[in-house]
Backbone:
């Protein structure tokens, strides 16, 4: 049996991220409040964060990422989106903690074990919108496309979100997902997080070594940056760097501040991670 502190697969990274959401929620100046994060992270989330090489130094990045996804999702919903499809939703608790219209349809898709664990932990809680959970391996292309078509027919304006997902995919799988979402006329917005090639190599040399051994290798950091998505009908209308955001709210480690300001345009070898709002062209 694996040690309680080891990562057994990509799903365990959700425990790690939930732990950092719990830490941020305790702060008097918290950028968001997630009262469910501590329960969802559990003891394993704490152990993973404090056992992975530099695992406990990533808090600033995951906090900035959560804040930016909140920001872009809130904006899309305020503009009239009536469906949010959260791909690889992990232990995200946004349907319970965000200010959402009760008529909003929110769909969470993830592996069966994640869905089952989350439903158990949150069984007594009430979401603030119409929440649906679906167990699905997104690499099952036939099932994925059937599901996307079904939700496309139900929505007026849909938003896809893929927080912490694409970095685990090879480029050809990201291209396939981009093409599938691009073919859906009701899906007008896709919110993603993205790493530069320079940041990808840095992550692969540190935390990525142990994650690779657990079958959760970091793979996607396209040389083209957000332009990778252009051939599939997507263009970036909003791009926010995580380090810049973390520095703005005094969350960034002091040793990383000399990396600011972030370069304009394609970051290339600069160690950049950010959140991007893509829209249909």
Residues:
């Amino acid at each position: 049996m694996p040690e309680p502190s080891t990562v057994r697969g990509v799903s365990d990274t959700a425990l790690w991220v939930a732990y950092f959401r719990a830490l941020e929620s305790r702060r008097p100046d918290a950028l968001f409040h997630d009262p469910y994060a501590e329960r969802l992270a559990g003891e394993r989330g704490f152990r993973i964060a404090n056992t992975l090489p530099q695992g406990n130094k990533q808090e600033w990045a995951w906090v900035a990422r959560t804040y930016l996804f909140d920001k872009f999702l809130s904006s899309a919903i305020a503009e009239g989106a009536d469906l949010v499809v959260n791909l690889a939703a992990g232990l995200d608790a946004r349907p319970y903690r965000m200010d959402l219209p009760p008529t909003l349809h929110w769909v969470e898709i993830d592996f069966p074990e994640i869905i089952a664990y989350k439903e158990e932990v949150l069984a007594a809680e009430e979401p603030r919108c119409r929440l649906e959970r679906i167990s699905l391996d997104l690499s099952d292309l036939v099932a994925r496309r059937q599901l996307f078509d079904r939700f496309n027919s139900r929505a007026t304006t849909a938003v896809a979100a893929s927080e912490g997902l694409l970095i685990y995919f090879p480029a050809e799988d990201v291209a396939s997902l981009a093409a599938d979402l691009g073919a859906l006329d009701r899906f007008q917005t896709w919110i993603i997080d993205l790493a530069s090639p320079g940041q990808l190599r840095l992550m692969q040399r540190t935390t990525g070594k142990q994650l690779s051994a657990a079958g959760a290798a970091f793979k996607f950091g396209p040389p083209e940056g957000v332009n990778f998505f252009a051939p599939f009908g997507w263009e970036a209308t909003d791009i926010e760097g995580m380090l810049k955001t973390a520095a703005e709210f005094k969350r960034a480690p002091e040793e990383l501040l000399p990396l600011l300001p972030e370069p304009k345009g394609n970051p290339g070898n600069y160690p950049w991670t950010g959140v991007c709002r893509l829209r249909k062209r």
Summary: Residues 66-280 form a domain with the Rossmann fold fold (CATH 3.40.50.150).
